[in-house]
Design brief:
Keywords: Oxidoreductase. It is built from nine helices and 17 strands. By secondary structure, it is α/β, with parallel strands linked by helices.
Length: 350
C-alpha cells in the first residue's frame, strides 16, 4: 500500500505569540483507498504558504471567510496544485493537473469532491512551471494586480511605494506598477539582499532596508514629489512613516499587516492618532482590500498577467522548501521574513 503523510496542527502560539515549529507535527497517515461518486484522488505536488494563515492559528480568526485550525487536525491551507490519480468525476481524468486557491489540505494524498474553486491547470499559461498556479497566476497575482487597479488608481506620473516589497505580493505589485507606467517604484524590505533583488532584477527605481536605513530620510530622497500610491503589506511604524509623506488625494492599498499578525488587535488594526489625522487632512483613501470581492474581474486580469509573464515582462521569484516535512518550518521562516517572493512547499513530483 502506498504511504501517505500530512501535517497536523498541535498547539496555538497564542494571540500575541510568534508561530513556532512545534506548533506543527509531521505524521504518517492512512492512504485513501476508496473514492465515491464525483470524487477524485489527488496527489499534492506543491503547497502554498501565506501570511494570512497566521489568523487560523488563533481560536478565532477575526474574519468571516475562513475559520480557525482545530488542534489535532490536518492543516488546511489556501492553495495547492496536484495530479489526479483516480477519478469518479466526469470533469476530471487520471493525469489531469489541478489547482485550487483555498481549502487544500497539507497532505500528500487526499480525496476531494471538486467544487467551483477546483480547476484544471492550463499548461500553456504556466510555461512549464506548475508552481506559478500558486504564485503569479493565483490569488497572489490577482491581489497584486487588482489592488493596484481597483484601489491604487495608478497614473503614469505616480510614485508607488511598496512595503514587504520582496514578498509574494510586493514583488509582483512593483512590477505591475512599473508596467502600468508609474514614474517611480520604491520598495521597502528587510535585507540588503532583498533590496538588491528589487533594483537589479525587478526594475524598482529604489529600495530601502528598514532594518539599517532611516525610512523617513530615504523616502524623502527617493520620492522628491511625494508618494501617490502606497501598497501596504506590513502596517505598523513603517506605514506610519510612508503615510506622512503621501500627497493630497493619494491612495493606500491595505493588502496586509504582517507586522501585527502576532498581536491581539482587530483587522484592520488601529493606527496612531497622528497618522489618522494625516489621512484625513490630505484626503488619503485607506480601505481594506480583499481580492475575493472581485471575482468578475479574475479572468480578464489573469489574461493580462499571463500575457506579461509569457512575453518575459514579469519575473517570478519563489522560495521553495523541499518535502511536506518542512511545511511547518517554512511557514515559520516566512513569517520571519525568510522568503523572497512566494513561499512554497514542493511535496512530490507528478
Amino acid at each position: 500500500m502506498t504511504e501517505n503523510q500530512n501535517v497536523v496542527f498541535v498547539s496555538r502560539p497564542g494571540v500575541n505569540g510568534e508561530p513556532k515549529e512545534e506548533n506543527f507535527r509531521f505524521e504518517q497517515c492512512p492512504y485513501p483507498v476508496d473514492i465515491q461518486k464525483d470524487e477524485v484522488l489527488i496527489k499534492t505536488l506543491y503547497l502554498s504558504t501565506d501570511p494570512a494563515l497566521r489568523c487560523r492559528m488563533n481560536e478565532s480568526t477575526g474574519v468571516d471567510y475562513v475559520g480557525p485550525w482545530q488542534i489535532g487536525e490536518t492543516i488546511e491551507g489556501f492553495g495547492g496544485v496536484g495530479s489526479v490519480m483516480k477519478s469518479l468525476n466526469p470533469e476530471f481524468v487520471e493525469g489531469d493537473l489541478v489547482c485550487s486557491q483555498y481549502g487544500w489540505p497539507w497532505k500528500e494524498y487526499f480525496v476531494k469532491k471538486p467544487d467551483k474553486s477546483f480547476q484544471k491547470v492550463d499548461k500553456s499559461l504556466v510555461g512549464g512551471k506548475i508552481s506559478y498556479c500558486l504564485s503569479i497566476l493565483s490569488l497572489t497575482g490577482l491581489t497584486s494586480y487588482l489592488g493596484l487597479t481597483e484601489k491604487g488608481h495608478i497614473q503614469p506620473s505616480h510614485t508607488l511605494v511598496i512595503s514587504g516589497a520582496a514578498g509574494a505580493c510586493g514583488s509582483l505589485a512593483g512590477q505591475f506598477g512599473r508596467l502600468k507606467g508609474c514614474d517611480r517604484v520604491i520598495g521597502i524590505c528587510g535585507s540588503d539582499e532583498k533590496c538588491k533583488y528589487l533594483t537589479d532584477e525587478l526594475g524598482f527605481y529604489g529600495a530601502i532596508n528598514y532594518k539599517t536605513q532611516n525610512i523617513k530620510d530615504e523616502l524623502s530622497k527617493h520620492c522628491p514629489k511625494g508618494i501617490d500610491v502606497y501598497f501596504d503589506n506590513v502596517g505598523g511604524t513603517i506605514s506610519d512613516q510612508v503615510i506622512k509623506q503621501m500627497n493630497k488625494d493619494s491612495h493606500v492599498i491595505l493588502c496586509g499587516q504582517i507586522s501585527v499578525y502576532n498581536k491581539d488587535v482587530p483587522y484592520p488594526p488601529p493606527i496612531p492618532e497622528e497618522t489618522q489625522q494625516c489621512l484625513q487632512q490630505n484626503n488619503i483613501t485607506r480601505e481594506r482590500f480583499l481580492v475575493l470581492n472581485y471575482p468578475e474581474k479574475f479572468d480578464e486580469s489573469l489574461k493580462q498577467i499571463a500575457e506579461w509573464l509569457l512575453s518575459g515582462k514579469i519575473k517570478v521569484k519563489e522560495t521553495v522548501a523541499e518535502g511536506l516535512v518542512n511545511a511547518g518550518p517554512a511557514f515559520v521562516s516566512m513569517m520571519r521574513g525568510g522568503n523572497i517572493g512566494k513561499q512554497l512547499i514542493h511535496v512530490a513530483s507528478p
